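User: I'm writing a short report section on ligand binding and want a predicted complex to refer to. Could you take this sequence and iron/sulfur cluster and write out the structure as tokens? A short remark afterwards would be nice.
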Amino acid sequence: MERNHEKRKELELYLHIPFCVRKCNYCDFLSMPAEEEVRRHYVNCLLEEIMQRGESCREYHVSTVFFGGGTPSLLAGVQIAELMEAIRSSFWVDSDAEITIECNPGTLDRQKLLFYQNAGINRLSIGLQSASNRELQLLGRIHNCEQFLENYDLARKMGFENINVDLISALPGQKTEDWEYTLKKVLELRPEHISAYSLMVEEGTPFYETYGQDAECREQGGHPRELPEEETEQEMYLLTGQMLAEKGYRRYEISNYARPGRECRHNTGYWRGISYLGLGLGSSSLMDETRFSNTRNMEEYLGQCPGFKRENVTVLGKTQQMEEFMFLGLRMTEGISREEFQKKFQVEPEGIYGTALQKLCRENMLKQKEGRIYLTEQGILVSNYVLSQFLL
Ligand code: SF4
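Assistant: Sure. The structure tokens for the complex follow:
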């Protein structure tokens, strides 16, 4: 389809591939193991959905595509290529679009990577989580560190120049030096991007059974038995920033670090409030200030094909738009622009958030400089508290 996108609005595409070899012990994402036949059926439905939604997105150009999961790399390479072909023929995809696929070590090989390359995928996001095989086992991951290194090396040799590595800190029993080991190992590889999140113990997961009480105890300021103390967790976070900065990475969002110019365009767009369309099971969308999502029930999703329905349709009012603007924008280290706020809502940020801004600046959680408002180092450490102050 024609690539000239002058006057078209920007859109990001997210495709959800909800399949995994098996569930990790900490995972509450919408993902599941499934037979090959189900996966094939799902891909066929997703192809239909791409074509259906493409029809109603003629006034948009697509700047980023993100295959997330689940484990998108569990699909055959040819299936990803088919999905990309359908996207290109149904949407106006920019010629320089960032196209990312999430991959898990142990599910990649040369043939798959070749398919990705030929389909124009230019960014890999590899879920390593830890460089320690003991920790990987505890997390219930399907791979070990050696498999990750092999896959990473192969991707580099095949010419992938934009790779993210996902990591998780604050694991049960983890000490700061264990986390330092993982960071060191990953930094040796010099990936373009590193995402480093702290473990969240989510309800409904095996981890919740084992560490739920511990997590609650820590939240209430007590001493957890197996999870790291809050202080240790903060120490790990500070160490991450420091070690990565020494190697030339910039923290551009609370948990995301990139070498110059390698920030993830897809996520940055999301935090900046660019419209996004989610395709596939359970995916959510925000277009023209309207939120909607797909069913989270696999049978229902497959049964809807080819007439996919939008669920939970909500038109965001001004208040919600302002909350989103602050809530998402402040996640980025460059913060929000006062001018953009003014332009979008015809009011200064102080007009709405005067009390919160004053209080947070006084507490040294927020800073204002050159027309921008952003979190301080101290504010980042308690970002949940700071961001919650912008809910109206
Ligand atoms: S690979 Fe990712 S999505 Fe799949 S079960 Fe593990 S954490 Fe969840």
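A remark for your report: The radius of gyration is 21 Å. The chain has 15 helices and 15 strands.
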